[in-house]
Amino acid sequence: MNQELLNKYIAGDATPEEKEEVARWLDADKKNMKEFLALRKLYDISIWQQEQTPVAKDNLSLARKRWTLQSITIELTKVAAIFILSLMIAYSFLINKDETEAASMQTIFVPPGQRAELTLTDGTKVWLNAKTTFTFPNKFTANSRNVTLDGEGYFNVTKDAEKPFIVKTKKYNIKVLGTEFNVTAYSGSPVFETSLLKGAVEVISPATNDRTYLKPNTHIYEKDGVLKKGIIEHHSYFLWKEGLICFFDEPVGKMIEKLELYYDIKIDVQNKELLKNKYSGKFRTKDGVEHVLKVLQLNNNFSYIKNNDLNLITIK
Do residue 143 and residue 98 come from a single domain? Predict the structure, then answer.
């Protein structure tokens, strides 16, 4: 395979025809996948080094992403294209310059296989995972800073002792003053989990008003309708906000559930032997669901068929 074409594919610059050519080459021989992974690793290292230096370039990049009190810029990482939603939000902020006006609510939906990053008017930074809906005001005027999350979000909250920051989800609310934490709460999934990295949070049940407090490096999750606490074992899980899906000794069945959620596709596993296996690894979100399956094929004997019309992948 032409290395220049592989580099274009890894960088996300390949045409649809070129992507199909690379896909056929990867399917032809497992050795090709190993060659591809080695090349991609070199590419990732080179990108990482570029991002670490020089300082001036980093400062310029940060300056370009800086937000004012009346504007928000939203950056979505692409799988096949970049979705930019910031124009509508920025416009809404510009027409609400008068602080005496009531706050209006903004809503963002992150498409499957992508993520979003934004900064709220109080300086709070928010990262949103795939298939997440996030609702927030264009300015915080009340005695509390309320936002609503349906999906997964990572928050670095600006401290304000007079205005607690509250994340509302379908089952529970998370109340903080200033902290760094992750919330998983998709309305279509039974999973609820809050992980605290820094500071302190209070998880509140609106139905019963029961309150549970978390300390740093701990998480709380719901199991059989009951909240349980534990220690965060894998901090690299939160690399999803940088575009990485991480698995740690994960049953393949659980992996499939996450892939279905992140990429909004149905995966029918007819090869039940595959579900008995466990896997650890990291994948770039933008590489897509088929790339994950091709890597799994290196150590597992299975084939799959993708039906685009039915949005279905069948594993045999």
Answer: yes
Where are the extended beta strands (E) located within the chain? 75-77, 105-109, 115-119, 125-128, 133-137, 145-156, 165-168, 173-176, 180-185, 193-198, 201-204, 211-214, 218-223, 226-231, 244-251, 266-269, 278-284, 304-307, 312-315
- Give tens-digit pLDDT for 194-243: 999 999 999 999 888 899 999 999 999 998 888 999 999 888 889 898 88
Q: Are residues 88 and 222 in the same domain?
A: yes
Shortest CA distance to 115 belongs to which of 238, 267, 254? 238
Domain range spanning residue 164? 71-236
Q: Answer yes or no: are the C-beta atoms of 281 and 295 closer than 8 Å.
A: yes
Residues 125 and 188 in one domain: yes
Q: Total domain count for the chain?
A: 3
135 Cβ contact partners less than 8 Å away, ≥ 6 residues apart: 105, 106, 107, 108, 147, 148
Distances (CA, A) of 69 to 84, 89, 122, 144: 20, 12, 7, 17
200 lies in the same domain as 257: no
**Helices 3-11 & 30-52 angle (0-180, nearest 10):** 60
Of 236, 262, 297, which residue constitutes the final position of a domain?
236
pLDDT, tens only, 144-199: 899 999 999 999 999 998 899 999 999 999 999 889 999 999 988 888 999 999 99
List Cβ neighbours of 121 (8 Å cut-off, separation of 6 or more). 69, 70, 72, 93, 138, 139, 140
Its pTM stands at 0.65
How distant, in Å, are the alpha carbons of 274, 296, 300 from that of 278?
A: 9, 10, 11
One-letter amino acid at 151 equals G
226 and 161 in a common domain: yes
- Token pair 């809503």 in the structure block, residue: 107
**Cα–Cα–Cα angle for 105, 107, 109, rounded to 5 degrees:** 175
